[in-house]
Design a protein that fits this description.
Strand order of the largest sheet: 5-6-7-8-9-10-11
Order of helices and strands: HHEEEEEEHEEEEHHEHHHHEEEE
Mean pLDDT: 96
Number of strands: 15
Shape: elongated
Low-confidence stretches: none
Strand content: 25-35%
Structural class: alpha/beta
Distance between the termini: 69 Å
């Protein structure tokens, strides 16, 4: 608290007095983000600094403040390994609200806050386990579940980047529930980690898996694989067998690929390989695998 009082006095020498309260609030709120591993402000081998800006006449007045010790920095004492984050007192805001009873801190310009609220208003009612607290930082959203458990969402136009920290992949469908399908429908493109989560979620029921397979896998099957399915009297039986084995695998060990080896009694000399690859912006299907996670005999 003593450091904040000293900082407040130092800021009064550099900024208009009416802006001091907002500047202190911004600094303290951004300090909270240094404890969120998914946040760009989290100090990974660098010193996080906020550059407070205020328009004075025709120029922007700038003040550099350390988010580690709340000291004012200049070219003489700035740490060599640093990362600077801007907060403009005229165009950026910090809003405190509640979404379905969850404390929510919104940081950013008006448009970024509007987009974050739109996403949260669609997402939060559909998830099974509500977070303890929500932070947004411009185009990023952090859902806090425990002291070191977070889900992060980054919005770049129609692209969603999904990340998690401290939560096993197998637990994410039990936390997010239908929220996963809401995110899938709201964004045209997602990152590889989200598509991996979508695959794991599809293993919750055969109905989900069948829909996932027909949308993301079947249209991309190589010719031999498609012919193999179409030659079957009812390939749903095969998909149920495949689902039976996939749903019993250890999903927390899944990385960028799921490899499936299909041995045919009719062609024992020519097994079929099916690789499901999770990529940014979509799922890739290959006829070669590096590791067989599932080995089927049909």
């Amino acid at each position: 608290m003593k450091k904040i009082k000293i900082l407040e006095q130092d800021l009064k020498l550099r900024l208009p007095e009416r802006s001091i309260g907002k500047a202190i609030k911004a600094i303290l709120t951004l300090k909270d983000l240094t404890f969120i591993p998914l946040s760009p402000i989290y100090p990974r081998g660098f010193h996080p600094i906020v550059r407070i800006k205020k328009r004075l006449g025709e120029v922007d007045k700038e003040v550099l403040v350390s988010l580690m010790d709340f000291s004012i920095l200049n070219k003489n004492n700035i740490p060599p390994w640093n990362r600077i984050f801007d907060f403009h007192l005229d165009t950026n805001y910090i809003e405190e609200t509640s979404i379905q009873g969850i404390e929510t801190i919104l940081i950013g310009d008006r448009e970024a806050i509007r987009r974050a609220l739109y996403l949260l208003d669609n997402l939060i009612p559909t998830i099974l386990r509500k977070p303890r607290k929500i932070y947004t930082f411009f185009n990023e959203i952090y859902l806090k579940y425990g002291e070191n458990q977070f889900i992060g969402l980054k919005i770049m136009g129609s692209m969603l980047t999904f990340r998690s920290h401290g939560i096993p992949l197998s637990q994410l469908p039990k936390i997010l529930g239908r929220g996963i399908f809401v995110l899938n429908s709201l964004f045209y493109s997602k990152n590889a980690e989200f598509y991996r989560l979508l695959f794991v979620t599809s293993l919750e029921t055969f109905g989900y898996f069948y829909e996932f397979f027909m949308k993301h896998i079947y249209p991309k099957l190589p010719l031999e694989h498609r012919e193999f399915l179409e030659e079957m009297h009812d390939y749903k039986n095969f998909l149920q067998l495949l689902y039976f084995h996939l749903s019993r695998m250890s999903v927390d060990k899944i990385r960028d690929e799921v490899g499936i080896l299909i041995r045919r009694r009719s062609r024992p000399d020519r097994p079929i390989e099916l690789g499901i690859i999770f990529r940014d912006r979509g799922i890739e299907v290959r006829d070669r695998i590096s590791t067989a996670h599932i080995d089927l005999l049909v």
